[in-house]
Structure formats: C-alpha cells, structure tokens
Amino acid sequence: MKRIEVKLGERSYPIIIGFGLLDRVGELAEELNLGDSVFLVSQIPIFSLYGQRCLESFNKKGFSARYSLFGESETDKSWESLQMVLSELARFDEPGRKRCFVATLGGGVVGDLGGFASAIYKRGISYIQIPTTLLSNVDAGVGGKCAINFCGIKNLVGAFHQPRAVLSDLSLLLTLPKREILSGMAEIVKYGVICDERFFAHIEDNFEKILLLEPQSLEYVVSSCYKMKADIVAADEMDTKGIRVILNFGHTIGHAIENILGLSHGEAISVGMVAASSIACHLGIFAKEEKDRLEELLKRIGLRTKIKSSSPEKIMEALLCDKKFAGKTRLVLPTRIGEVKVVEGVEELLIQSVIMGSNL
Ligand SMILES: NC(=O)c1ccc[n+]([C@@H]2O[C@H](COP(=O)([O-])OP(=O)(O)OC[C@H]3O[C@@H](n4cnc5c(N)ncnc54)[C@H](O)[C@@H]3O)[C@@H](O)[C@H]2O)c1
Questions:
Q1: Which domains does the chain have, with CATH numbers?
Q2: 3-state DSSP call for residue 128?
Q3: Residue 147's beta-bridge partner residues?
Q4: Fewest CB atoms less than 10 Å from the CB: which of 77, 193, 253, 292?
Q5: pLDDT per residue over 4-32, tens digit each?
Q6: Helices H, strands E: what count in the chain?
Q7: Which pLDDT does position 216 carry in this prediction?
Q8: Please, which residues bridge with residue 38 across strands?
Q9: Whose C-alpha lies nearest to ligand 1, atom 21?
Q10: What is the DSSP-derived secondary structure letter of residue 140?
Q11: Would you state the pLDDT for residue 359?
C-alpha cells in the first residue's frame, strides 16, 4: 500500500493506493472523522460490481448509508443528473441527521458530478473519491476540479472542491473494458510529456505490462502520476499561476473532438496531443523526431492519433467555445518530451488545418 499526500495546508489529504482497499473504506472514513452518514454516488454497472462491498464496509463501521445512481455516459454528466442526485441527497440528509458526507464510486464522470454535488450542497460538504477507471486513478480523482457539462459545453459549470481522501483500489480496474484502459493510458503518456522524460521512457519500455494490469507496474505508474499531479495541484491549486494549466496538454483540441465525434476521453486526448505536437513543430518549438516518438508510442499502445473529420468547422466552433481557449487561442504545446509551455495567439488557420488532418 502506498500513500501520497496532496499538500494544501489545512485542506491536505491522502491518496491511498493499493489492492483490495475497498473493504477498508469504512475504516478510512472513521479515521478521517468524515461524518456519521454517507451518501454514495455511482452508476448502475459500477454499483452492481462494487456497490454492496462498499456499503458493507461503511455499515460495519456504523455509518448509515444510502446511494444514488445516474446514467453511465459523458452526456449524463448533466444538470438533470445533478438535480436528481442533489434531491436524493437532500431527502437522505433529513433534518436531525448528523453530519453526512459523499463518497463517489466510479470514473471521472461520477467523480466530477458527485464532487460538484458535494461542493454546492449546503455550501460544501466533505467527500471522498473512490476512482474505478484508470483515467480517474491517474488524473480525475485528484485535484478538486469538479463540474458538469452545460449548454453543450464540457465542464462549463463547476467548482474547486478538494476531496478529504482518495482511495485508489487498483483491483477494481480488473473489470474495466479495454477501451477504458486505453483511455487512461493517454493520460499516463501525457504526464511523461509534460513533466518527465524518464517516466515517458519507462512507459515506452513497460506499456504492455500496464495494459495487462500487471500489479507492480500498475502501482508504480499510478503512484508516479498521482505524485506528479499532487505536486502540480499543491503549487497551483486554483489554476491561476500558469502551472496547473500544463495538465491541459492535448485537452483543448481533445475536448472539442470528444464533444463532436463522441470519442472516449483518452482517445480524444491522444489525438489532441498529436495535434498540439504538430502545431508545435510548425511553430518551430518542437522537433519532428520528438513528435514522431510521441505518436509512435500512442500507436503502439493502440490509441488513435488522427481523425478524419467531415466537420472541422464544428470542431473549431467547439474549440472557440472552450473556456480555456476562447479569446486568446491559447494552447499548451511541447518544447521537448518532458517539458511544455503555454503559447498564446496560435493562428486559427494552422489549428484548423492540423485538425483536418492535412498536417498530422
Ligand atoms: N476533474 C478532473 O480533474 C478531470 C480530469 C480528467 C478527466 N475528467 C473527466 O473525467 C471524465 C472521463 O472519466 P473516465 O475516463 O473515468 O470515464 P467514465 O467515468 O465515463 O467511465 C467510463 C465507463 O467505464 C465504466 N466503468 C467505470 N469503472 C468501471 C469498472 N471498474 N469496471 C467496469 N466498468 C467501469 C463507467 O460506467 C463508464 O461507462 C470526463 O468527463 C472528463 O471531463 C476530470
């Protein structure tokens, strides 16, 4: 079992990583003195696999528990789902009940929606994250960003609300479909590009073991990513100092593609990273061999690196609506494997031609 601290002063919290930890979630909640009753937010397929075990662990430690399940796709990260979860939470948390906290059991969609519900319910209550996808185990589960999609725009309505703990039980990944494992791999590769060339090289040498969820490799890679994210979040919690923004490498273009083409988050980020690298090559700040090295790794992993879009205008439109991009045509671009920088004023025409595939 490994423990990593997200250092945020009074709001610091642990990330606990290991195998078979789900049965100890009640113990953890008791240690952290989170409250007396727990409201579990999840989705039907995940709850049917792990929900009862999770509830039993809470019940064993004397917590009263209730759960709320919402739809299982990205489009369910919606106002309607949020409203449903909040009204079930309000019914459970009746007057007279003692302190209630939220536990999210699921991938990034559950974590984002459940986290946001706990951010706004009674002006903020405690929550813990129990990530169940590879992606949420290396990225979404940590850092306190939570949001829903709104008016067709991804993560438009949200908040910063740090969890009190992240319980990362890697054995829950054994039921994850291959597509979702690939999706998480894209975020893992991202960490190598933005932070650490040696970590990138480690993935080049070991990605097959990670894909097979080989326990030692998995634990090493997940805890390395968590450590990188924890350090970035500690340095720039509110994303105002130009440090946390590097986590968006591949995401600005990726989100636009994800929205329009309905790709998985990771597939879209993979295409987005290659597109950003192509733009960086065109601007002369990133060597073509480095771009080829990244593209080659993504392909070997089995990720998509290009799209043939019949509607580049729609993608550009979605891009221009992105809250991090709009007004400034601002992108996170690589300068070498292991380092990225924010570049403002990137020509829209260049971005469009790259998206259309002519320059990929
Ligand atoms: N808050 C952040 O910092 C942050 C960072 C990155 C991504 N995100 C968000 O995360 C979301 C994507 O998250 P994701 O990739 O985890 O996808 P997801 O939450 O949609 O999960 C993918 C699918 O896998 C299923 N699933 C989850 N765990 C399972 C398991 N253990 N066994 C079997 N099936 C399982 C889910 O029901 C779902 O159908 C996006 O909405 C993205 O915006 C948030």
A1: 2-176 (3.40.50.1970), 179-355 (1.20.1090.10)
A2: strand
A3: 158
A4: 292
A5: 999 999 999 999 999 999 999 999 999 99
A6: 14, 11
A7: 97
A8: 65, 101
A9: 107
A10: I
A11: 45
